[in-house]
Design a protein that fits this description.
The complex is a heterodimer. Chain A is mostly helical. Chain A contains 18 helices and 3 strands. By secondary structure, chain B is mainly α. Chain B has 2 domains: 153 residues, no CATH class; 235 residues, MetI-like (MetI-like fold), CATH 1.10.3720.10. The chains are: A mainly alpha, B mainly alpha.
Chain lengths: 429, 459
């Protein structure tokens, strides 16, 4: 009997051990699921940041330019329009030739010119226009290098691969090393990236145009979706009778929140561009489309904020003789405002990261100029990321990552604001 | 015109408010007068009567302006041009308008066109002035009339509140208008597409190559619009994404709600939510640039031929993006399972995992299924990841290592770049959009019904 008991005991123990092992395994699955998700986040953000860092700096080389008055300003008028028309890229070529006088071959000369960015001529022109008294003297100016030379100096182009497989020839490497040895090359924080519009050259391209475009687009989105969303939420929560019609509106809002964003782009294309004839690529149309897209988010968030205001407040206000609208305007809305703002900011952050609907309404054009208003053609930050991600040259990878980092910074700032607003002003009743 | 008119109207409305208020204050000072409404409501009353009709006129003016100018210019054209066919007259007028606004591109304009353009500019200025004056006149008339209405007995507050409530109700109708707009625009354009391509070919044919030539005499001018491979590609990528997102998301939710300490919960949950907040274009860049080549390299090292735009890379990253949708929705659902069920199971001697598997999960199943369906509709409608990381060519395959294309990729490809609006190529995008809208709508409705039923069960 005791023997049998012992056997049963042993089986039970074994079964218990198995069950505990299963328990531990199950727990491990859960923990590793979270680990997988968080690791992907770390991997994604980490690789973006690592690739973005080279995008924020650039190499410049200090060259001597002979600002010959007979070439720059033959008439001697010192008229900016006249000087601006001079051939400054010629001056850059001459300066490079003086730098390496032994380079005679035309092909080699072209290789030499390719070390310096085409933007060097613009910088030189700007320097001369800023101070016309320089004409006739020699000017020492730091000008941007080309993207390939820059990448080689940053170590992103491997010197050890065979010459035919890399975009910088041995001869160019030798010239670059000569400059570096002479202390003429400097790696600087590339402010141009933040101040200029798009360009075909990675070293000249910047995100300012896209940032201004984003500003106009989001301004239109905010001006439309905030008043509309808050009014709709107030109506549905405070005034609407409970009937079929309002039920239908609610179902509609919930479904709109889940419609794929690209469908809003199709709506914008068919209705705003083709039917109303609004301009393509304009922040105005983009803002309207994004407003329609964020409207459900704003309505849903505002409704729950309005709902959270306790009925006693309303009853107290009604009791002292306020009309229903006065109750809402003087009491419910101010108390619900932090929640509404939080929801709106989160909706705007979603609109800021959205790309697909904007592709439909033509906001994918190559635009150099900084948009001056909501009807000028422009790009927005995520579309700029999309456009650059498509470009073949390697330097664009770093520029794209840098632009992504800027975009993420804005998103984090907006979300933090939302969280702070909530923590600071939200009342628990 | 819109900017100037709006600005002037704003100024006029502000003046109206001020005048109404002032007048009511004067009335209140009168002999024995007690105002029914406070002065601010009298001001708002006048402002509404000023702005309301004026805005209606302004909208009409915006609509009418180009038509009036066009008609006037057409009336002043020389006989030789007016005698042309209607289409050519319209083109001529459009060119004149473009020349007048400085956006004209094309050959050197003829003298007649120059004349018409200067006519256009002049008449446009006159029309604008007239229309803006009309808007302001209507506003002023409303102001004067409603100011005359003001009296101590006037129920200004009631009138203003009725108007505001009307505005609130109107803005809640916008949501319906958007849905109607989406349905109408998709259905109309899709109907035009199905007039060109039979609907049976679109839904059941397996050959997709929509690159119709711009000119009809070009070689290969006929496109093929059998969308089956496009649908199959979408399903393949969605399947890959769900096979990542469902296990990871569900296990994360279980761990967070059943095992994790409050400390882990407060940190891990918002971190997971970050994944949902990252713009999809960033995921797309990551998938195309890092994950695609990585998978290709891994495949090559074991002797597999992997396309660089494989369905696996796009699906994998899409799965990561969807994890937070699955996990936060399932988290809510699991938390809604009554604690008494768990305690009953634990009290009978079950371990935590046994309780979860045989009590909590079965109880939460309808809600979890709803969450999965919502995540799936998100995956089907996702655009940027697949545009950047999936292929363009339609291929009917279930091998995730090959490149496939999806509905959203095709919509984007068909509608970006040069397009003429009436070709089957651009209309096909709307047909695809209609299918996409319907499928996601059905998934959402089913998911919402499931989640609601489930909630009611325990309330």
């Amino acid at each position: 009997m005791s023997d049998l008991n012992g056997q049963a005991d042993a089986t039970a123990k074994r079964r218990l051990a198995k069950r505990y092992a299963a328990e531990r395994r199950f727990r491990l699955y859960g923990a590793s699921a979270i680990a997988v998700a968080l690791l992907s986040l770390v991997f994604l953000l980490g690789s973006t940041v690592l690739q973005a860092i080279p995008g924020f700096t650039h190499h410049v080389v200090t060259l001597d330019f002979d600002l010959d008055a007979t070439k720059l300003d033959p008439a001697g008028t010192r008229d900016p329009a006249e000087i601006g028309r001079a051939d400054f890229s010629r001056l850059v070529k001459v300066s490079l030739r003086e730098e390496f006088p032994d380079v005679r071959d035309r092909r080699e000369r072209r290789q030499l010119q390719r070390l310096v960015s085409t933007g060097a001529a613009y910088d030189l022109r700007d320097a001369v226009l800023a101070d016309p008294s320089l004409i006739g003297s020699r000017l020492s100016l730091a000008v941007p290098m080309s993207d390939d030379a820059d990448l080689l100096l940053k170590g992103e182009i491997d010197r050890d691969v065979p010459e035919g497989d890399r975009r910088v020839s041995d001869r160019q490497v030798a010239w670059l090393d000569q400059w570096v040895a002479a202390g003429r090359v400097e790696r600087v924080f590339w402010t141009r990236f933040f101040t200029s519009g798009d360009s075909r050259e990675p070293e000249l391209a910047g995100i300012w145009g896209a940032m201004v475009g984003t500003f106009w687009t989001l301004l239109v989105t905010l001006l439309l979706s905030f008043p509309l969303g808050v009014s709709a939420a107030i109506y549905l929560e405070e005034f609407a009778p409970r009937n079929r019609a309002t039920d239908f509106i609610e179902v509609n809002i919930n479904n709109l929140a889940a419609v794929p964003s690209i469908v809003f782009g199709l709506l914008g294309l068919a209705v705003f561009l083709n039917f109303f004839g609004m301009p393509r690529s304009a922040p105005l149309v983009g803002g309207v489309v994004l407003a329609l897209m964020t409207l459900p988010t704003v309505i849903i968030a505002s409704r729950s904020a309005v709902q959270a205001v306790p009925p006693s407040i309303r009853e107290a206000a009604l009791g002292v003789g306020a009309s229903p609208l006065q109750v809402v305007a003087h009491h419910v809305l101010p108390l619900a405002m932090p929640g509404i703002m939080t929801g709106t900011i989160i909706g705007m952050a979603r609109a800021l990261g959205e790309t697909a609907p904007l592709l439909m309404i033509g906001m994918v054009a190559f635009i150099v100029d900084i948009p001056g208003g909501p009807t000028d053609p422009s790009a927005v930050l995520p579309v700029q990321v999309y456009l650059w991600a498509d470009a073949p040259e390697r330097a664009w990878v770093y520029k794209t990552s840098a632009a992504i980092l800027v975009l993420l910074t804005f998103l984090i700032a907006m979300n933090l604001t939302a969280v702070l607003l909530r923590n600071r002003f939200e009342r628990r009743w | 015109m819109v900017g100037l008119a709006t600005l002037l109207l704003l100024v006029l409305t502000a003046t109206a408010h001020w005048m109404g208020r002032r007048r009511s204050l004067l009335l209140a000072d009168g002999p024995g007068a007690v105002l029914h409404s406070r002065p601010a409501y009298h001001g708002a009353y006048v402002a509404f009567w000023c702005a309301g009709p004026a805005i209606v006129v302004l909208l009409i003016a915006i609509w009418a302006e180009p038509r009036i100018v066009s008609a006037l210019v057409e009336g002043g054209l020389p006989e030789a041009i007016r005698g042309l066919p209607t289409v050519e007259v319209h083109t001529f007028l459009a060119n004149a308008a473009a020349l007048a606004s400085g956006s004209f591109v094309g050959p050197e304009p003829s003298d007649a066109l120059r004349m018409a353009a200067s006519d256009w500019a002049r008449l446009e200025g006159v029309t604008r002035a007239v229309l803006i004056s009309a808007v302001l006149a209507v506003g002023a008339a409303g102001l004067v009339w409603s100011r005359g209405q003001l009296s101590p007995e006037l129920r200004a507050r009631n009138a203003v509140e009725r108007a505001v409530e009307g505005l609130l109700a109107a803005s809640s109708v916008v949501a319906i208008l958007v849905t109607v707009g989406i349905v109408l625009s998709l259905v109309f354009e899709a109907a035009r597409f199905f007039a060109l391509v039979p609907i049976s070919e679109f839904l059941f044919d397996t050959h997709w190559s929509p690159q119709t030539a711009i000119r009809s005499d070009q070689v290969g001018s006929s496109g093929a619009f059998g969308a089956v491979p496009v649908f199959a590609g979408t399903l393949l990528i969605t399947a890959v994404a769900m096979s990542i997102a469902v296990p990871v998301g569900l296990f994360s939710a279980i761990y967070l709600s059943e095992y994790a300490s409050p400390m882990v919960r407060t940190w891990a949950k918002p971190l997971l939510e970050i994944l949902a907040g990252i713009p999809t274009v960033v995921y797309g860049f990551f998938a195309a640039l890092t994950v695609g080549p990585m998978i290709r390299g891994a495949g090559e090292s074991v002797g597999l031929d992997v396309a660089s735009e494989s369905a696996l890379a796009a699906g994998l990253i899409m799965g990561v993006m969807i994890i937070p949708f699955v996990s936060s929705l399932s988290d809510d659902v699991i938390n809604a399972v009554p604690q008494s069920l768990r305690e009953a199971s634990l009290g009978l001697g079950a371990t935590s995992s046994e309780t979860i598997r045989s009590v909590v999960l079965p109880a939460a199943l309808p809600g979890i299924a709803g969450a999965v369906l919502l995540a799936m509709s998100r995956a089907i409608g996702e655009t940027m990841i697949v545009v950047m990381a999936a292929g363009m060519a339609a291929k009917l395959t279930i091998n995730p290592l090959e490149a496939v294309t999806t509905v959203t990729v095709q919509i984007t490809a068909l509608l970006t770049g040069d397009q003429e609006f009436d070709s089957a190529k651009t209309l096909a995008a709307f047909a695809l959009g209609l299918i996409l809208f319907l499928v996601t709508l059905v998934l959402n409705v089913i998911a919402q019904v499931m989640v609601r039923r489930y909630r009611e069960q325990y309330e």
